[in-house]
Amino acid sequence: MGSEMCIRDSTYSFPPVHSVPGSVQRPHPPILIGGVSNPALRRVVRHGGWLALALGPNQLPERMAKLKEIAAAEGRRFEDLDLVYKIFLNPGEPKLGPFGERDIGSGSEAQITDDLKAILDAGFQKIIIRYRGESAAAQMEQMERFAADIAPKL
Questions:
Q1: Which residue, 27, 64, 109, 126, shows the most beta carbons closer than 10 Å to its own?
Q2: Quick one: which of 18, 81, 9 has its CA closest to 46?
Q3: Global pTM?
Q4: Which helix (H) or strand (E) element contains residue 111?
């Protein structure tokens, strides 16, 4: 076989797994569904809450409006949806995002603060913060910078 490695798809079975203590959330912990396409938003409305990411300031209001429209069409109260935004912070030079504009969460502290305020103003209840440092030390520096210079302005 030489230096090549053969990888096959596998499935695994486990005996029943129990978690003790159990979840205090009833009927279960929230189920967050990612994605920004219309089919993804339909899954959000039918099965859980929304875990959004990578939406720029121009896409965020349109996708939120579409989510409200789908919720109304499906007979689900929009107010009952868990709305969580996951953002990767990268203080410093602005990075180009997937929609051809500044990547949300990148740039100056003022830009990042404005991004976070826009997410909260759009109706998201929670924000998951991730860091893009090249090392644990760089990520720690970003966390400290966020805690000291950005979070207090929210």
A1: 64
A2: 81
A3: 0.78
A4: helix 109-121
